[in-house]
Amino acid sequence: MKGSNGTRESLLLAAQTLFSQRGYPTASVSEICRQAGLANGTFYCHFENKEEIFTALVERLKRVLHARVERAATEERDPSKAILRAYRSVLAYAEEEPDLCRVGRSAEILRMGIERLFRMDEADVLSEILVAGIRAGRLRPVDPPTAAQALLGIIEFAMLRYVFWEPGALTTDVLQALDDFILHGFDSGKPVAPVADAAKDRRAAGRIVQDSPESGGKVTRRALLAQAERLFGEAGFFATSISAITSAAGVAQGTFYVHFPSKVAVFVELVRDVNSQLVASQRKAIAGLEDRRQIERAGFRAFFGFIGGRPLAFRVLREAELVNPEIGRWYYERLAKGYVRGLGDGIARGELRELAPEPLAYALLGIGHAVALAAQAGGERAYVPEDRVASLLDALERGIVSPAD
Question: Which of 28, 129, 264, 335 is deepest in the core (most CB within 10 A)?
Answer without folding.
Answer: 129
